[in-house]
Amino acid sequence: MTQPSNPRLLISRGWLQATVLVFLFGFFVLGLLAYRVNVAQPPVPERVETPSKRVVFTGDDVMAGQKVFLSRGLMQYGSIFGHGGYLGPDYTADYLRRAAEFVKAEYAREQRSDAGEQTAREFKTNLYDPETRTLTYTEKQAAAFDTLRSYYGAYFSDSTSQKGLKPSAITDPDDHHGLTAFFAWSAWAGSALRPGKDYSYTNNWPPEPRVGNEPTGAMVTWSVLSLVALLGGIGVLLAAFGRWNWLGWHGSEERAVLFRRPGEVALTPGQRATAWFFFVMAALFVAQALLGGSSQHYRAEISDFFGFDLAQLVPFNVARTWHVQLAIFWVATSFLAAGIFIAPMVARREPRGQAGLAYALLGALFVVVAGSLFGELAGVHGWILNDWFGHQGFEYLDLGRFWQVLLTIGLVFWVILVFRVLRTRLRTEAVGNMPWLFFFSALALPAFYAVGLVAHQEMTFTATEFWRFWVVHLWVEDFLELFTTVMVAYIFVLLGVVREKVALAVVYLDIVLYSVGGVIGTMHHLYFSGAPVEHMALGAFFSAAEVIPLTFLTLEAWTFLRIGTAQQQRAATPFPHLWAVMFLVSVGFWNFVGAGIFGFLINLPIVSYYEIGTALTANHAHAAMMGVYGMLAVGLALFALRYLMPDDKWSDRAAKISFWSLNIGLAWMVFATLFPLGILQLYESVSKGYFEARQLQFLTGRTVSLLEWLRLPGDIIFIVGGTLPVLWLTWRGVRHRVPLTTEEPQGYFFTEGSGVETDRP
């Protein structure tokens, strides 16, 4: 078990070189695309005026309206360019439809036989002058703006909660003017032709025949090429598995392992401190699930939550903001705790003071959670209207910038905690071996979360969307995935069921496969946000490759199950982690179904054109976020809890109930409500119009309401049978923590000399 004096890389350097090249290529392309967004985004004119020089609104009005939209949490209610909440309308499509209908009616009043064609021509003609930064509106477009300013003023001033917003949500006439200007700007970007092109700044989104918006040639072409990339990539992967049978989890899992009983594993003070992390994680999980159920219930009874008007207390945009933020918080809490728990096993040491620093991190996390949730509530109610302490407003980055900075600092502090444990081990290891990958994957979490600070309310909405999705996609879907892959691989190594060399090859294969599609594939979120067409082309093609590693993980999910059941049957001592392994199996399943099938379905540009911002997006998000990161977070908690509490305090029954309840509840949520609702909404969008599919009348109609009521049994199973047993187990982990010992942590969770192969002398 001693470390070699001359450390060597356990696998071929070709893996390391391939990983570096893929990363460099991906981020080089992202750099070019960042430049293109900056120079080719829809301009915000200094002023919008009529031919008679009457100023309709100004660029300052647009930015002020954007700030109101974000600070009051309206992105968690409705959407712009299809991005945001799903109860309210998409205000780009809403303004465009209502303005076009107004202009067409004016032409019809003049008895013009070509009223429809003239309306489309008027909205398609781009009258922006880049030299004077002036946009010219026709008199009819200006009159439409004046009419819609009154409409949106009445909409947001409504004294009832019939729309899911708080009564009299926004009453300031200046705010109404700014919001209308912001909506009008987004509608202009969605209809006016990009200079020198035959499509709008948003690639003709939203689909609106009244202004001549229809699918573009690029949209169809890149949808077809995406399918080609997917089929070709999966074929190459399966061929590689057939050619090289050493790919994947193979080796020591065929041997019987003598596991240390949980009570025999010496834990460090820092590891014992993670019991509180997991308890906080479970409490946040319960709260997040309850908020999710309440926000979905708005479609069943928009102003009547089982006899109570919930919008009076927790409006939809508050419930959804908290639901999304808590999802990030509880999953991140589990990952932080898992890193603190595993690090001493990797290093076989823990420096003094680690427990105190871990508790300090947990305290800081509590401050960020409490402060940000209150700030978001205060923003929606108009008590705090600055983006530092109130509601920053960007979906997934709703927390105020002050709390965002604190959370970033907290993540950096966590990396320092991990590093101070690993530093002695890192000195003896070749860069590229498992300990270094563990450290690098941890370091990537604060690094790429911090990118979200680039987005701020003074940026144009197109630019903020580019940087926001670095967090939503790159941080969540790529680097959290990288960290989890390393964590799972290291757990298998520490349990002795796979060799380190095998695990290392699997990790590198995952990194390469994810990075090939995942880095540039980030752009599939920006098809219709005002980015140039190359973002759609590259985003569509490379995001198709994201399904390839998900297929690989599905193949490996069966290996996870085989490992768990084989060790359960053959091990000389009981295998203590059957249910943790079962959660890993569910991660593989939901990765393929939620992220792979449902994700690829909405990533095709031609589908996304009609679908973006509908329940199919929510369907993908729930199946992928909860199915992958949620299930993994619970699995990591169960793994650590087996060692944090005595054997007689553990309950396999509670773990089993939680596993089946969470998976059945999630499947019920997806297949009984979100997926069929998404298909209905997609059909409504294609057959009648995107505007109709996003209207409250459709979303609270009889059919949709029935689907939401059908979801209720699944939600009860998920919350009662799934989250509460996890909360109970984590509380027992806190209450019955194993006593502190003076022993050094073992490097493995199996007994040395049991006949298990390692790659170390």
Describe what this molecule looks like in 3D.
With 761 residues, this protein is mainly alpha-helical. Helix content is 65%, strand content 3%. It is built from 23 helices and eight strands. Strands 2-1-6-5 form a four-stranded mixed sheet. Strands 3-4 form a two-stranded antiparallel sheet. Helix 5 packs across helix 6. It is globular and about 90 Å long. It starts with 12 loop residues before the first helix and ends in a 26-residue tail after the last helix. The relative contact order is 0.13.
Features:
761 residues; mainly alpha; 4-stranded mixed beta sheet; 23 helices
Major β-sheet profile: 4 strands, mixed
**What's the count of strands?**
8
The helix tally amounts to 23
**Shape designation:** globular
Distance between the termini: 6 Å
Task: State mean pLDDT (0 to 100 scale).
Answer: 89
What class, by secondary structure content? mainly alpha
Radius of gyration: 27 Å
Low-confidence stretches: 1-5, 752-757
Strand order of the largest sheet: 2-1-6-5
Helix content: 55-70%
Percent of residues in β-strands: under 5%
